[in-house]
Amino acid sequence: MLRFARILFFAASIAALALAARQNGSLPGRVATHFGADGQPNGWMARDSHTLGQIGISLFIGGLFFALTRYLPRMPERFVNLPHRDYWLAPKRRAETFAWLGAMLFWLGTLLQGFLAYVFHEVWRANLLTPPALRLNSLWLQLSLFILTAGLVITLLFRFRRPEGAR
């Protein structure tokens, strides 16, 4: 599971960077980057600044989640907040526990990269209109992200529940 999650995470990160590069050429010189609740722009920036910001955010998220997965197994146990931590971090289960947590971090990072790519794509689409306007019905997106995140939390709680016969 860890290998597949890692591959998908890196694919999502590369796709987010490719999206930024692809969209840059078709953006106007002055890009609407912030929108009010009515979808009308209320914040602007230069095209290259917007694209650099988009690339920077994608690289930051990619680097952050990668670093977290690399550092997590080296973290002192007292900083690892897991249900039944002593059981799951016992020497015979430690490597498997951190591999599972690393995979979950990669899944969460993949969701975040996908969400940000979607937001940047919608900003790009809004800037193709004259005048720019964000026509985003994000309720389905917010609900989907909530369900996926809740699913990850529930999965974590079930994965690290107290095993039968363990103290």
Task: Describe the protein.
The chain has 167 residues and is mainly alpha-helical. It has one domain. The protein has helices at 2-24, 47-71, 85-88, 91-127, 139-159, and strands spanning 30-35, 41-46. The protein has a two-stranded antiparallel ribbon with strand order 1-2. The mean pLDDT is 90.
Radius of gyration: 20 Å
- Helices, by number, come to 5
Largest sheet strand order: 1-2
Q: How would you describe the shape?
A: elongated
Q: Classify the helix fraction into a percent range.
A: 55-70%
- When the domains are counted, the total is 1
Task: Write the SSE topology.
Layout: H1 2-24, E1 30-35, E2 41-46, H2 47-71, H3 85-88, H4 91-127, H5 139-159
Antiparallel strand pairs: 1-2
Task: Name the descriptors.
single chain, 167 residues, mainly alpha, two-stranded antiparallel sheet, 5 helices, 66% helix
